[in-house]
Structure formats: structure tokens, C-alpha cells
Design brief:
This protein has 311 residues and is of the alpha/beta class. It has a domain of 56 residues: DNA polymerase, domain 1, CATH 1.10.150.650. The protein is 43% helix and 13% strand. It has a seven-stranded mixed β-sheet. The longest helix has 27 residues. It is globular, with a radius of gyration of 19 Å.
């Protein structure tokens, strides 16, 4: 038995000890519906990502790269012989009340013209932001950041994560956290404000592509209760149907809070590691908390042979 198989057995045994055998049986299929490849700001090739997910015991994986669909075909072709279900997805950048929100689309038609046109516009905005970020970092003494970030990216998307990697590699900052806290985070020295899709646009593109719109890592946005209720009301009225209750960035208390909002607004509950790379800085594929029992999972009613498209 290899080390990864042993880790999987230990993880399953820990779940049984903590939550009981009955709950373990009910979660035999492992869903991870939020992950990134190097088509956006992840490190692994789409094929490598799928193979790693399979080795970690994931049965159903959504590839949800930022604002692009470029990795889905490769991921799908790798998933089929492994018996892993690949859910075509995307994570769309949204501007709402001077905040950047991420909305995930699951089970999307990757050839849908409205979605593709919308994502093309977002990629053009990202290209402008990349150039501007490099200029602002140069003004504060961080030289070569634009070229360095572009060199670290493997796809069309150059993100703040690539800039952070460059800054860490070159010794300008200690770690990713410092890069965002000092330079790249909202309101910091090199932050570039950008108008992304509206909430209604993003949800509309996803629905037009036959998909399900899900709010990604909702606790991260740090909204007050009143503002968050307003946001959820607009999201639901726009056609959104899901919320990421389980996210690697959520504490146990945040999980229960989001489960409560899911119940209040009759939203389906999603789970996602938000995996980016296998270095320890990000959560591992498939390694997530258990969905609270009163939540209705986003995959309820999925007929994997028919509804989960193989793009």
C-alpha cells in the first residue's frame, strides 16, 4: 500500500470515529466542486490535477478555473479512463458593492456563446490589470514583476497569485500572505481596482449555459448580516441556486452559519477544496469537512451519465 492510499484510509477512519459509520456510508462518493489548474492560477496541468484528485479518492471533480474554460477538455480526457466524473465549471469574477465576489458555474455547456463572450470580456480586463499591476509594483521598488508573473503563468490568465509567487521567489516578501497584506490586497499599494461582471450578468451567463450558479467561499467576503442578506436575496432573484457551505477557508462556525443561510434562502449546498497547488499553502483535493446533515447538496438529483456534461 502506497503512502497516499494509507493517508486515505486514515482520513476515512477519522471520519467514522468523529461522525459515525452511517454518515460515512452516506458520503461514500467524494465530491470536490472547486479546484484550479494552471489554465488560471493553479500549478498543476489539468491532467495532473485530475490524476491527483483520483489518487486522493475524489469521485466527482469540478474544474473551476478563473474566467476561462481552457483546461476542461484535457481534464475530461484524463478523467474518463480513470472513472472519475469531471464536472465542467468556471469561477467568474463579479463586482458588487465595491467588492470582488466569485460565482462558480457548475455543469456548464463550454460551447455556449453567451458564456464565452462574457468570459472573453473578463480576460481582456485581466490583461489590462496585469500591465497596471506591474507598473504599480515597479513604482514601489519591485522590478520585473510583470514579466515574472507572466512567466509563471501557463495559460491566458495572469492573476495576483502569479505576482505573489514572483515576489516570494525573488525575496521581496516572506510569503503569499505578506504579498497580499502589503501590496496586492484591496486598498494596498499595488492594488488595481477593476470592474468585473455584474452579479446578474454572471448568473445569467451560467444559466444560459445550462449550469448552476454557486457563491464561492462566501465567508471570505466579510459582509455584515444585513448586507449579506441583501446580496443573497439578489443572487437568488437572479437565478442563483447554490452556496459553498464547505470551503477550505471556512471555520467550523462559518460552515454552520453558511448552512443556516442555505436553509433560509433554500439554496443548495456545495463543497469545494479550492485546491491550487500541492505545497501545503492550499487545501488538498477532497480533504474537506462533512456537509451538515440538514443541507441539501448541490448534486442531489444529478444523473451523472446524463446531466454532468463531458464538455
Amino acid at each position: 500500500m502506497n503512502s497516499e492510499s494509507l493517508k486515505m484510509l486514515r482520513w476515512r477512519y477519522a471520519i467514522i470515529l468523529r461522525f459515525g459509520l452511517r454518515l460515512y456510508i452516506n458520503m461514500t462518493l467524494c465530491y470536490d466542486l472547486h479546484s484550479h489548474s494552471n489554465a488560471s492560477d493553479g500549478v498543476l496541468e489539468p491532467a495532473e490535477l485530475v490524476k491527483r484528485a483520483h489518487s486522493m479518492g475524489v469521485n466527482v471533480l469540478a474544474l473551476t478555473d478563473h474566467d476561462v474554460l481552457d483546461g476542461i477538455e484535457e481534464a475530461r480526457n484524463t478523467a474518463i479512463p480513470l472513472g472519475l466524473v469531471l464536472v465542467p465549471g468556471v469561477e467568474i469574477s463579479v463586482s458588487w458593492r465595491r467588492r470582488v465576489i466569485h460565482v462558480i458555474g457548475l455543469n456548464i455547456d463550454v460551447e455556449n456563446s453567451a458564456l464565452l463572450q462574457g468570459l472573453t470580456g473578463l480576460c481582456e480586463k485581466r490583461q489590462w490589470r496585469t500591465i497596471e499591476l506591474g507598473k504599480r509594483l515597479e513604482k514601489v521598488g519591485i522590478m520585473g514583476a510583470h514579466k515574472g508573473a507572466v512567466g509563471l503563468s501557463k495559460g491566458r490568465i495572469v492573476s495576483r497569485t502569479h505576482f505573489a509567487r514572483y515576489m516570494v521567489d525573488q525575496g521581496y516578501v516572506r510569503d503569499f500572505k505578506a504579498a497580499f497584506k502589503r501590496y496586492l490586497g484591496q486598498g494596498k499599494k499595488a492594488y488595481v481596482d477593476c470592474e468585473w461582471a455584474t452579479l446578474e450578468e454572471a448568473v445569467g451567463w451560467i444559466i444560459d449555459a445550462g449550469g448552476q450558479a454557486v457563491i464561492a467561499h462566501p465567508a471570505r467576503y466579510k459582509m455584515g448580516r444585513g448586507l449579506f442578506n441583501e446580496f443573497l436575496s439578489i443572487f437568488k432573484a437572479s437565478g442563483g441556486c447554490g452556496i459553498e457551505v464547505i470551503s477550505s477557508s471556512h471555520s467550523q462556525q462559518e460552515i454552520m452559519t453558511m448552512a443556516g443561510y442555505a436553509q433560509q434562502y433554500e439554496l443548495l449546498a456545495s463543497v469545494g477544496s479550492d485546491f491550487h497547488e500541492p505545497t501545503g499553502r492550499w487545501a488538498e483535493l477532497g480533504r474537506m469537512a462533512v456537509l451538515p446533515s440538514h443541507c441539501v447538496p448541490i448534486w442531489q438529483g444529478w444523473e451523472q451519465a446524463q446531466r454532468v456534461r463531458r464538455a
